[in-house]
Automatic annotation (TrEMBL):
Reactions catalysed: ATP + H2O = ADP + phosphate + H(+)
Membership in a protein family: Belongs to the helicase family. RAD3/XPD subfamily.
UniProt source species: Citrus unshiu (Satsuma mandarin)
Protein's UniProt name: Regulator of telomere elongation helicase 1 homolog
Top-level taxon in the UniProt lineage: Eukaryota
Lineage per the UniProt record: Eukaryota, Viridiplantae, Streptophyta, Embryophyta, Tracheophyta
SUPFAM superfamilies: P-loop containing nucleoside triphosphate hydrolases
Length: 758
C-alpha cells in the first residue's frame, strides 16, 4: 500500500494517488494541524471520501494510538514509543472525530471506503431506533411514538421490560472488540437478532470509547440530539460530507411551522391526557400525572389557536409578518414566558409519554403523538433560555386553502411560522464549544462564497478540485439557440411562449437522437416541465407527428413524479426502459432540486448526458424566499452586528438568490460522469449561461471544458463526434473496466493501465 508524506504525516493510501487527491489530503491535514476550518470541493469520482478518511485518520494516529484492542496489544509489544502515546492519551483526551453525512445510505458507502483503507480506529455508527430497534412491537412504530414506547419499556419496575435492553451490558463486557473493525447499521442489527442485545443501546455504550463516530449530520445540528451525544467537544474534529445542503438544513432545524391542523390535534391529545390522568389518579402517586396540569396545557393551546385566528391578514399573498422578537409578545399574551416555558415543556413531555403508555397498555393505534411538537417549538423559541437569537428570525402567519371540514366549522386554516434566516446559529455553537476544526466537503459546493457568508464561519482553507477525467471524456456546451435559431431562454417573461417551448422541444429531439443510452433533462420547476411536456404532446411537426412522439422515437420517457411515494417506481421504470433494446435508451424528465437531482448515481449508460433547460430560481413571491432576501439586504445595508469578528462581508438578497440557483444547477449536473472511467455531456440550453457571471458560478472542474455554440449545427456536429469516438474507445475496454473496478473502486492505480484515455 503506497505511503505519502504529507505535511510531516505518513498517509497510507490504498492506490497510487492522483495529484488532486494529494492536494485534497494536504488541505485536510493542514486544517487539522492549524485547527482551522476548511471548505473542500472535489467532484464525484475523485476519491473524496477515501482521501478524507485516510488523511484524517493518519493525522489522528500521529497523536496517539487508536483505542482498538489490536492497538492496545501492539502498544504492549512495541514498548517505549507506544508508552509515550499511551501517556499522552491518559493526560489529555485525544480528539474525537465526528464524521457526518446527510443520510445513512451515504454513511454506508463511507464505511465501505473505510474497509478499503489500512486504518482501523475504534468506531461506531449512530442511528435512530427506527433503524436499530429489534423489539417485536416497538420496531413497528415510528418517530416519537417509537421513542416513547422504548423509554417506557426500558423503565425499571415496568412489567413489560425490554429483554434486548437488559442484555446490552453483558454483551459489551464479553465483546470488547466490537467496533475494532468497521461495522454498519445492518451489522449491528444482525448482532442484536443473533445474540439478543439492543443495537440502539449498544451504539450508545460503544460511543463512549471510540476514536471516530459516524452519524447523520442532523445529530450535530439539532441541539437536543447534540446534547445527548455525550461527546468531549473541545478540540474535536467535525466533518460534514455531502455538505451542499447544510445551510438550508441548519436554518430549517432552527425554524418551525405550526398549522391549524397540527394545533387542533394537540388540543385533542391534551384533552385525552386529562381523561387518562383523571382515571389513574387514584391508582398512582405520581404527582406529574395531575389532570390540572393537562387542563392548563389545553387551555393555553386553545388561547393560542384563538390568538393566531385573530391575527390581521390584509393580503393573502403577503400574509402577516413581524420581526422575530414579536413571537415573545404573542406568547406573553398567553402567559408563556422565559419563566413558564420550561414548566410547560415538562408538562408536554409527560403528556406525550402518558399517551404512549396508554396506547401500549390498551393496544390502541400507535400513531405518533402530535403534542410533542409543542415541546419542540418552545425549545426553539426559548433556546439557551435567552432571546437574542430572535433577531435572526421573522414571524409569519399565512392563510392556507381551507379544507371542507374547516369551511363547515367556519375556521380559517392558518399556519404560524417562525423562520430562521441565519443558518450560522447552529454552526457558531461549535465555536463556543471550542471544536478543533470543521471540514465541509462535497462534490458540488460551488459557488463557495455563500457558504462562508451564510454559516458565519471563517474558512481560510478552500479547494475546488479538478476532475480526474481527461478532456476527451467530457463535452460541455452552452446552447443559446435551437435548431431554427430561436433564442433559448426560460426566464419568466419567455417561458410561456409557444415558440420557446417548441424550440426547446426540437432541441431535445436532436439531443435524444445523438446521445446514447440514458439522458437526463432538468427543468427549473415542475410547472415549467408540465407546461413543456403538454405543449410537446399537442404540437405536430409537419402535421405528421408531435414533438413528444419524436422524442419517444429515440428514447422512452420517464417523468419525475411530484409525490415522493411514487419516486422509487419511476426509478425502476427508467432502469427497465434503459435495458429495452427497441429504442436507443431512456430519457428522464426531472426538476432541479427534485429527487433525481439529489444524491442519485447515474453512472455509465444510466446517464450519458444531462441537459439543463434553464436557471432554477426560487419563486420570488414565496414568503420564505421574499423574507430571506429582505433579511439579507437589511444585514448588508447595516454592515454591523456581531459578525465583524469573522471578517466576512454580508451577502445581499440578490447574491443569495442567484447563488442558490447556481448551486441547484451544479447539483443536477453532478448526476453524470460519476467515476474516472465514465464519460458524458453537459448541455446548458439557456443563453443566460453564456453570461460571465453565470458561467463563473458553474463548478470549477467543468468551466475549462465549456464552449458556447452560436450555431445549433455546431452542437449537433461536435456532440455526434464526441459520442462516436467515446463509444469506439469505451466498447473495446468495457470488460477491462468491469473486471478491475468491480463496481467499488472508482480511482487509483487502475486508471494507469487504461492507456486509451490518455
Amino acid at each position: 500500500m503506497p505511503t505519502y508524506k504529507i505535511r510531516g504525516i505518513d498517509v497510507e493510501f490504498p492506490f497510487e494517488a492522483y495529484d488532486c487527491q494529494l492536494v485534497y489530503m494536504e488541505k485536510v491535514i493542514q486544517s487539522l494541524q492549524n485547527k482551522c476550518n476548511a471548505l473542500l470541493e472535489s467532484p464525484t469520482g475523485t476519491g473524496k471520501t477515501l482521501c478524507l478518511l485516510c488523511a484524517t485518520l493518519a493525522w489522528r494516529k500521529s497523536l496517539g494510538s487508536f483505542s482498538t484492542l489490536g492497538s492496545q496489544v501492539n502498544n504492549q509489544i512495541s514498548g517505549s514509543q507506544s508508552s509515550v502515546n499511551s501517556s499522552q492519551s491518559g493526560d489529555s483526551k485525544l480528539p474525537t472525530i465526528l464524521y457526518t453525512s446527510r443520510t445513512h445510505s451515504q454513511l454506508r458507502q463511507v464505511i465501505q471506503e473505510l474497509k478499503t483503507s489500512n486504518y482501523r480506529p475504534k468506531m461506531v455508527i449512530l442511528g435512530s431506533r427506527e433503524q436499530l430497534c429489534i423489539h417485536r412491537e416497538v420496531s413497528l412504530l415510528r418517530g416519537s411514538a417509537q421513542n416513547n414506547a422504548c423509554r417506557f419499556l426500558c423503565k425499571k419496575g415496568t412489567n413489560r421490560r425490554c429483554n434486548h435492553h437488559s442484555r446490552v451490558a453483558d454483551y459489551m463486557k464479553n465483546n470488547p472488540h466490537l467496533g475494532d473493525e468497521p461495522i454498519d447499521i445492518e451489522d449491528l442489527v444482525n448482532i442484536g437478532q443473533t445474540f439478543g442485545p439492543c443495537p440502539y443501546f449498544m451504539t450508545r455504550e460503544l460511543q463512549k470509547t471510540v476514536d471516530i463516530v459516524f452519524a447523520p449530520y442532523n445529530y450535530l445540528i439539532d441541539p437536543w440530539f447534540r446534547k445527548g451525544l455525550g461527546v468531549e467537544w473541545k478540540n474535536s474534529i467535525l466533518i460534514f460530507d455531502e455538505a451542499h445542503n447544510l445551510e438550508g438544513l441548519c436554518a430549517d432545524a432552527a425554524s418551525f411551522d405550526l398549522s391549524s391542523g397540527l394545533l387542533t390535534a394537540c388540543i385533542s391529545e391534551a384533552k385525552n391526557c386529562i381523561d387518562i390522568s383523571s382515571t389513574r389518579r387514584g391508582q398512582s402517586s405520581d404527582e406529574t400525572l395531575n389532570p390540572d396540569n393537562f387542563a392548563i396545557l389545553r387551555a393555553l393551546l386553545l388561547k393560542l389557536e384563538k390568538r393566531i385566528a385573530e391575527v390581521p391578514i390584509n393580503s393573502k399573498e403577503l400574509g402577516f409578518t413581524k420581526p422575530g422578537p414579536y413571537i415573545y409578545e404573542l406568547l406573553a399574551d398567553l402567559n408563556i414566558t422565559q419563566e413558564t416555558a420550561y414548566k410547560l415543556i415538562d408538562i408536554v413531555e409527560v403528556a406525550a409519554e402518558l399517551l404512549q403508555e396508554d396506547k401500549l397498555q390498551n393496544k390502541k393505534s400507535t400513531t405518533a403523538c402530535r403534542i410533542e411538537s409543542i415541546s419542540n417549538i418552545l425549545k426553539i423559541i426559548f433556546r439557551d433560555k435567552g432571546t437574542a437569537h430572535s433577531a435572526y428570525y421573522r414571524v409569519h402567519v399565512r392563510e392556507a386553502d381551507a379544507n371542507a371540514a374547516d369551511v363547515l366549522k367556519g375556521k380559517a386554516s392558518r399556519t404560524l411560522s417562525w423562520w430562521c434566516f441565519n443558518p450560522g446559529i447552529a454552526m457558531q455553537e461549535f465555536s463556543r464549544l471550542e471544536v478543533g476544526s470543521i471540514i465541509l466537503t462535497s462534490g458540488t459546493l460551488s459557488p463557495m462564497d455563500s457558504f462562508a457568508q451564510e454559516l458565519k464561519l471563517n474558512f481560510p482553507l478552500r479547494v475546488e478540485n479538478p476532475h480526474v477525467i481527461t478532456s476527451k471524456q467530457i463535452w460541455a456546451g452552452i446552447v443559446p439557440v435551437g435548431p431554427s435559431g430561436y433564442l433559448l431562454n426560460s426566464s419568466y417573461r419567455n417561458r410561456d411562449s409557444i415558440e420557446y417551448k417548441q424550440e426547446l422541444g426540437n432541441t431535445i429531439v436532436n439531443i435524444a437522437r445523438i446521445v446514447p443510452d440514458g439522458l437526463l433533462i432538468f427543468f427549473p420547476s415542475y410547472y415549467l416541465m408540465d407546461q413543456c411536456i403538454a405543449c410537446w404532446k399537442n404540437t405536430s411537426h409537419g402535421n405528421l407527428t408531435t414533438i413528444w412522439e419524436r422524442i419517444c422515437k429515440h428514447k422512452k420517457p420517464v417523468v419525475e413524479p411530484r409525490q415522493s411515494s411514487l419516486f422509487p417506481l419511476a426509478i425502476e421504470d427508467y432502469m427497465a426502459k434503459l435495458k429495452d433494446t427497441s429504442t436507443s435508451g431512456a430519457v428522464f424528465f426531472a426538476v432541479c432540486r427534485g429527487k433525481v437531482s439529489e444524491g442519485l448515481d447515474f453512472a455509465d449508460h444510466a446517464g450519458r448526458a444531462v441537459v439543463i433547460t434553464g436557471m432554477p430560481f426560487a419563486t420570488m413571491t414565496d414568503p420564505k424566499v421574499r423574507l430571506k432576501r429582505e433579511y439579507l439586504d437589511l444585514q448588508a445595508q447595516s454592515q454591523g452586528g456581531e459578525y465583524k469578528e469573522t471578517k466576512l462581508s454580508f451577502l445581499s438578497g440578490e447574491d443569495w438568490y442567484n447563488q442558490q440557483a447556481s448551486r441547484a444547477v451544479n447539483q443536477a449536473v453532478g448526476r453524470v460522469i460519476r467515476h474516472c472511467h465514465d464519460y458524458g455531456a453537459i448541455i446548458f440550453c439557456d443563453e443566460r449561461f453564456a453570461h460571465p457571471s453565470r458561467k463563473s458560478q458553474i463548478s470549477l472542474w467543468i468551466q475549462p471544458h465549456i464552449q458556447c455554440y452560436s450555431k445549433f449545427g455546431d452542437v449537433v456536429y461536435t456532440l455526434t463526434r464526441f459520442f462516436r469516438e467515446e463509444r469506439i474507445c469505451g466498447s473495446t475496454n468495457l470488460k477491462l473496466i468491469k473486471t478491475e473496478v468491480s463496481g467499488k473502486v472508482y480511482f487509483g492505480a487502475i486508471i494507469l493501465s487504461v492507456s486509451w484515455f490518455f
